[in-house]
Amino acid sequence: YFLTELTRLFQKCRTSGSVVITLKKYDGRTKPAPRKGHPETFEPADNKCLIRASEGKKKISTVVSTKEVIKFQMAYSNLLRAHMDGLKKKDKKSKSKKTKATQ
């Protein structure tokens, strides 16, 4: 479901706009960690990864467990390759001017 929604976000932003994707280690907590004065022992069952994507007001997220990482990463990388054609190229002129100025 996440990858299909991400595909829709990429297609929506093909002409203008941007999609922001963040990846973060997720330990299964739904409440914030307690302060230093109140220690709480919390051991996550396994390492997970929280992946969020947003475009304007539309936000989607998913949690990927260690067992599904390889499968998800393959599908995710194929999706990125398919939709990374709208990137802008850097100006090489400005870079060459900077190097001439420093010499």
Task: Draw up the topology in text.
Blueprint: H1 2-12, E1 20-26, E2 48-55, E3 58-65, H2 69-83, H3 92-102
Antiparallel strand pairs: 1-2, 2-3
- The assembly state of the depicted protein chains is single chain
SSE series: HEEEHH
Major sheet summary line? 3 strands, antiparallel
Round the Cα radius of gyration to an integer and report it.
20 Å
Low-confidence sequence ranges:
none
The first-to-last residue Cα distance is 54 Å
Overall mean pLDDT score?
78
Shape: extended
Helix content: 25-40%
Percent of residues in beta strands:
15-25%
How does the helix and strand content classify structurally? Answer: alpha+beta
| Counted beta strands | 3
Number of helices: 3
What's the arrangement of strands in the largest beta sheet? 1-2-3
Summarize the structure.
GO terms for molecular function: 7S RNA binding; endoplasmic reticulum signal peptide binding. By secondary structure, the protein is an alpha+beta fold.
